[in-house]
Records
---
Amino acid sequence: MSFLYHTFFFDPLYNILMFLFKVLPWADAGVMVIILTILVRLATFPLSRKAVLAQAKMTEIAPALAKIKEQYKDKAEEQAKLTLALYREKGVNPFSGILVIIIQIPVIFALYQIFLHFPEVNSALLYSFVTEPSHISTTFLGFLDITAKSAVIAFLAAVSTFFQFKLSMQGQVQPKGDSFGNNLTRSMQTQMKYFFPVIVFFISYKISGVIALYWLTTNLFSIGQELFIKKNIRATQV
């Protein structure tokens, strides 16, 4: 696992950062994190696009799913069978967004480890075609040490998480009735929308400004990406 982590995440991200510092000597570490985040999101765009399309299809078939749940509420096996059949018919994979989330975990962990020792450079980790930058500034926009904690960026990361969830949940049909399953679904949706941003704030603040900035940037990218894809979906349906 350590070999895979260093081969596909830590070492590539480290070398990309060093390369960026070399070719963009005017840019500070915060700007580099933003650029790196955008590059990561562009690399995973095909996966995240599938996730957004799947979410749009889930919203589209939500009334049919609700009808199945209501009609077969006492027949769990039949309900599951018809739900899977509907997914196959509409070409929906409800788990298509999981891979994008999983990829973010080692990226965040790698960024945290990389910036633990900044602005030192470990030349042993550099690829043969990457040279050590002469100067690395960890002061974001001239006043904020990106390697330290930042309540401001953590707050912005939390706010952007709220709006990202709110956007992704638009058009979803709220389950009706007071059954255990419906109450659990409504509770989970509410917690994801309001409670998870609070968790994001405390995690991103506790770790460092680097992680908070990465989270903020990836949320803003996700919001823009989702708006763009949904706009194209509506354009093709006209």
Note: The chain has a mean pLDDT of 82.
---
Amino acid sequence: MKKSITRFMAVAAFTAVALCAQQHSRGQGGHGSGDGGGGIGFGGVNSTTTAAQVTTIVTHQVTFLTTLLTLTTSQAATATTLFTNELNSIITLDAQIVTARTALATAVKANDTAAITTQSNLIGTATGQIVGLEAKADAAFYALLTTAQQTILNNTDSDFFNDLRLPGGGH
């Protein structure tokens, strides 16, 4: 019972810190504006996220996971690389989505159904690619864990990966 409370408090504290840290990027047209969720999380990342912000986000995430799972130095370094690469790829795709959303708004105002279809498809494809990037990073992270660490992660929450994507963030 005490472990459950400790884990709950750790997740709650991380979520509160991450929500505060990401608040400025929510609503800027990127994935921080409510596209859904899934994965070990980075809500609020969008095409305006800087390299320094990526570093901060990943550092907080890996620190949290290190505390929760007692990651080794090697595991933490690998997780940092995995999640940094994931976020940088997401930022690139988010820029494509922002451009497509702008073009979609123009198409809607012009009642250009062909352009609406094209831009909607572009948004859907990029969003699907983001979900894939998240799932691959999560799978690679999960695979580097020991059986004991996987058990801790699995027992923390039945949907741990989805729950750590912040509300309104993720993809």
Note: The helical segments are 2-22, 51-69, 73-110, 113-144, 147-156, 160-164.
---
Amino acid sequence: MSTTEDPGQVTQLLHAHRDGDQAALHHLLELVYPQLRKIAGRQLAGNSGQTLDTVGLVNEVYLKLVDDRDRNYANRAHFFAVTARAMRQVIIDYARKRTAKKRGSGEAALPLDEERVAVEREAENLIALNEALERLGQNDERLLRVVECRFFAGLTTDETAEALDMSNRTVERCWREAKDKLRKVLSR
């Protein structure tokens, strides 16, 4: 993953945060904000018309990370792995809200148009993906973590291996296995 931030500076800020410097997390998030926007943009690509945009997604993730003040990040890759999980949670929460509105959660009926139908369809797909990921994680937690790092954070094999303390070969095997299992579950 090509980044504009200085990995050494990211690591220094992570260590400062771990040592109790709460301001370090804010500086860290400012530093990695462009990378988080790129990741969010990839996650939201092709979902035209939705109200959750890259800025909204990054801001929601930022709030999750700031609220989790007790977390200690081992390194830059671990930080992005945690960020990937937070991003997944925000996206799935958003999708659930969209499908709840679609089913009439007390809200006034909205006129149907192509753009709105596309968003609703994507929300259902995201929820189906999340359910498949949850089942995958129940059977093999490592596969779920690899998917979060590779798919949701866009980490490379090397970065995923570092974040999850695995060998590159294990990451590659888990990535292939997870994709195969998810493909089978989602094709049903």
Note: Residues 45 and 54 are 9 Å apart (CA to CA).
---
Amino acid sequence: MSQSGPAVFKVAVGEGDAVTVKVDLPARHRADAPLLILAHGANNNLDHPLLAALASYLPAQADTAVVRFNFPYAERKASTVDPAPILENAFRCVHDHIRNEVAGPQAPLFLGGKSLGGRLAAELVSRGDEGGGLLAVGLVVLGYPLHRPGQKDRPNLEPLRRIGIPSLFCVGSRDPLCDPELLSPVLARLQYPGRLYVVRGGDHSLERQDAPGDFSAAAEEVARFIRETIS
């Protein structure tokens, strides 16, 4: 977290609806500093420990601002995930607000998220601006939901096929929703071969049984990816 804690505010995502956004800035924030927008997973919200860990680590160690936000269903504490158009609209509204009100005009913008949020980010960058998607210089996915538990023969590859920017996929070696050996060849065939980082012993949230709550290795990999992408 930045020295004074995150900035917290609401962003309108529809008529009468708004979601909470948290922005953690480096202690000495520059207008051209990179910025990462992270969306949460299906069964959690913007305060998930993995996202909070990145929001603490990246501003201090990579001079990168981190934006977290709730989807509308998480904002109203509902258990049922919003339909895809509502999720996409919320991501787009937060993106536009950050681009217009927070990020400097030359700031490199990265998109990403955990599980559901990461898949949505991949879909949006795959479409590009002309296809109603979002522009970014890089994609960060934390725990990609490649397949259902026990259904490795039915992977969900469609969101990945047209990623045209550098990408980093952090997955756990014991994730029941993503076999790294199935994901690796898919990423290798992308226009910019995707980078795969496997957290040994990590689950779908990249958490290890021998070090619960320690996400430092994944955070450093994200920091490294951001530094190398903009260098």
Note: The radius of gyration is 16 Å.
